[in-house]
Amino acid sequence: MSHRAANLPQLLSEARRWFEDALFASMEAAGEQPVTTAQASVFAMLDAEGTTVSELARRMGVARQTAHQAVHGLIGMGLLEQVPDPGSARRRLIRMTAEGLRVHERAQATIGVVESVLVERIGPDAVRALEGALRFDWGAPPLVAAP
């Protein structure tokens, strides 16, 4: 990860990219199908019983069409499936297939290994401090005016 970023949001973005690069390269090296960042985000936002595309889009902070494209790419790869929503005849739920669950579990294990590499590189205290700061409730985003 480069440290050319000028501010905290840029540093956070670089840190996320570092994790994604490690995860995606490791998964592909292990023989898994390559996925995009948007497709990986779908997995992170899915409920076990399934989630609608509209809800996935809301959780991901993207347009419904963007979520729809990511979902249908994953359906085409055999990692997700569409099923009827038992609570509404008009809605369909997106959920993992058995293969999708296997890949998701492997990705979670890979993230654990990447996190251990980070601990080796920057130390356990730094990682605990970082995790603590990111888990802390920051409250609602402030509305501010620059001086």
TrEMBL record:
Domain HTH marR-type: 5-139
Domain of life: Bacteria
PROSITE patterns reported in the protein's UniProt record: HTH_MARR_2
Gene3D superfamilies: Winged helix-like DNA-binding domain superfamily/Winged helix DNA-binding domain (1.10.10.10)
InterPro entries, per database record: HTH_MarR-typ, MarR/SlyA-like, WH-like_DNA-bd_sf, WH_DNA-bd_sf
Descriptive protein name: HTH marR-type domain-containing protein
